[in-house]
Write a structure and sequence with these properties.
It is a single chain. The chain has helices at residues 30-37, 47-51, 79-92, 118-126, 141-161, and strands at 8-12, 41-45, 60-63, 68-71, 98-103, 132-134. With 163 residues, the protein is α/β, with parallel strands linked by helices. A hairpin with a 4-residue loop joins β3 (60-63) and β4. α3 runs parallel beside α4 (118-126). The two termini are 17 Å apart. The structure holds iron/sulfur cluster.
């Protein structure tokens, strides 16, 4: 085991250039990737692909409150698969400890701003205090620096609470 492991930061896989979007494309953000990699070990995560919806897949959106995940064209409610995966992944994220998450905005899984995606909701619920942001909200120097400081603070507070 490493003596001083780099803090682990979750990031939506499509932002790292992985071809995991519904259409097989990505939304790579080279600026964030380069800046965040200076401080963190970036851990790509794609809730929809990892839950098993496949690539490509029919696009989905959220409806109602509590939100239901519904396919855009066929109108099928398909959230069960994602909810099962989210519950399982919350346990795995504790080891190694994750210190924050940068997620793709306006995704029914990853989006953070209201309405929050299903995966973002799980993260915020299971890891209160952990910084979780939309990638679009940390494009400016100040907001990016603030996020990095918050994630490192969270990492150190988790490390010290383990004694
Ligand atoms: S926004 Fe999230 S669920 Fe959608 S492709 Fe990107 S990583 Fe996957």
């Amino acid at each position: 085991m490493q003596d001083n492991p780099q803090p682990v930061l979750l990031i939506s896989g499509c932002l790292l250039g992985l071809p995991v979007r519904y259409d097989g494309g990505h939304k790579q953000d080279p600026f964030l990737q380069e800046q965040l990699a200076k401080f963190f070990q970036l851990r790509a995560i794609c809730p929809e692909a990892e839950a098993g919806y496949g690539v490509p897949r029919e696009p989905m959106h959220l409806e109602g409150e509590p939100p239901r995940l519904v396919t855009n064209e066929s109108g099928r409610e398909v959230g069960e698969l994602l909810l099962t995966w989210c519950n399982k992944s919350m346990k795995e994220l504790r080891c190694p400890p994750v210190c924050g998450a940068v997620l793709k905005a306006r995704s029914p899984s990853c989006g953070v701003s209201p309405p929050s995606g299903l995966f973002a909701r799980h993260l915020l619920h299971h890891f209160p205090g952990m910084p979780v942001v939309n990638s679009e909200d940390i494009q400016e120097d100040t907001s990016l620096k603030n996020f990095i400081v918050q994630a490192l603070d969270y990492y150190h507070s988790c490390s010290s609470s383990k004694g």
